[in-house]
Amino acid sequence: xxxxxxxxxxxxxxxxxxxxxxxxxxxxxxxxxxxxxxxxxxxxxxxxxxxxxxxxxxxxxxxxxxxxxxxxxxxxxxxxxxxxxxxxxxxxxxxxxxxxxxxxxxxxxxxxxxxxxxxxxxxxxxxxxxxxxxxxxxxxxxxxxxxxxxxxxxxxxxxxxxxxxxxxx
Amino acid sequence: xxxxxxxxxxxxxxxxxxxxxxxxxxxxxxxxxxxxxxxxxxxxxxxxxxxxxxxxxxxxxxxxxxxxxxxxxxxxxxxxxxxxxxxxxxxxxxxxxxxxxxxxxxxxxxxxxxxxxxxxxxxxxxxxxxxxxxxxxxxxxxxxxxxxxxxxxxxxxxxxxxxxxxxxxxxxxxxxxxxxxxxxxxxxxxxxxxxxxxxxxxxxxxxxxxxxxxxxxxxxxxxxxxxxxxxxxxxxxxxxxxxxxxxxxxxxxxxxxxxxxxxxxxxxxxxxxxxxxxxxxxxxxxxxxxxxxxxxxxxxxxxxxxxxxxxxxxxxxxxxxxxxxxxxx
Lengths: 169, 329
Ligand SMILES: Cc1cc2nc3c(=O)[nH]c(=O)nc-3n(C[C@H](O)[C@H](O)[C@H](O)COP(=O)(O)OP(=O)(O)OC[C@H]3O[C@@H](n4cnc5c(N)ncnc54)[C@H](O)[C@@H]3O)c2cc1C
Ligand code: FES
Ligand code: FES
Hints:
heterodimer, A: Ubiquitin-like (UB roll), 6 helices, B: alpha+beta, Uridine Diphospho-n-acetylenolpyruvylglucosamine Reductase, domain 2, Enolase-like, domain 1, binds flavin-adenine dinucleotide, binds FE2/S2 (inorganic) cluster, iron-sulfur (chain A)
């Protein structure tokens, strides 16, 4: 099976039962993506496929052949952090850091959704032309990512600082 | 998880053919429900036919409705401009379910076929007629706060967990199906079953049949529709009770309406009696309450879930009042 992860090509022989999460962690040693609940409930395993956020724990790897996958390792590294990674540091968006890679991948996918006008459960005007990422909107849109340390306020601030224009906040 | 074979289908015909060639085959959408159940070994198909590469189109039908491919992702359906404009209850229902990540993975077909969230169904130490037909049901006398108040049977009191399906039930959707024997359509109301003596059979889909699309008929009043959901957390939790409603008021009277409840039965619960009671009646709170009473007279709550009846009553009244005042969507 052929996979494209963070721009690199990989040919792997896999059992059909292997999840995308286990493939990334165990076969490619990309351990930035975390396993929390392994059942879709916590978001720690969030990665981007063709720019869209998904839970890698519920994904069978075989379904994601030949599609560009981005993990936290593909977003930035210690020398050059992604703007959102810098914002997480500046705004205390984490304590233990376990949920952080998932939060960051999720927020990047979320920002793309908002930019193309995807509404959320708290959007009052469904037919609006532009999404305003208010505090309530961000909380709702990020509700698939839990943080056991309760760093949610810092997380929302970091996302707001990165993706929301000053005048819209 | 047991070992299984895997193939990806490029068309509906190919999917049906691939599934027919394998014993115990199942279709695979986003996997958000099936993979989880396979891991728990509640489901153990020997072969998966991946149907996510089937056409993901949402097109207008000649009569002004919408035809939604079964492989369309939940997010794509919720964000579609025509859905937001013409069937806001459907967008809202989808957006109130699961999380952004899961909605990006989940397909329309998979959403219809998702299985109950009854704790006893998931717990292999418990008895469950859905999991092992004939074993008995531990929910009936167990912790049944999340269970059904309508249409349950002595064999099963589980509920259907989908939000999207409640809106589809209210909006008169039609399910398009293809099987080895050909194509057919089923009104949404007839797609899911009540448990009766065979709670393991949840839909009227035959083994090997594939959902190819869901059709929404043109429905002008659906532009005045909404979805509300009551749950234990503000976000990312299944419904305790939910409602999809569309209302058209003319000269102070209810000209037409659609009403369905979620979280209350083994299937999305179309509130026919409430609709009947309200059509032609004054669009006022007293009428909405009477309609709610007409529907809820049939409710048969269990030990822990009588609160659902009261919740449903209040949801019906406040949602219809809101729609009557014009705050649609
Ligand atoms: C943590 C979590 C929270 C959730 N919260 C909610 C919620 O609040 N509200 C809600 O409504 N849902 C919720 N869900 C459920 C989610 O909506 C479903 O899991 C999803 O819609 C299933 O779609 P899928 O494509 O992933 O299906 P799959 O898991 O791929 O398949 C599910 C079933 O559908 C069958 N199937 C798939 N496609 C077809 C087809 N075309 N024809 C025939 N059969 C088919 C499969 O064989 C399987 O039996 C939640 C799920 C999780 C994991
Ligand atoms: S590990 Fe995937 S959602 Fe928790
Ligand atoms: S920082 Fe510890 S779980 Fe979020």
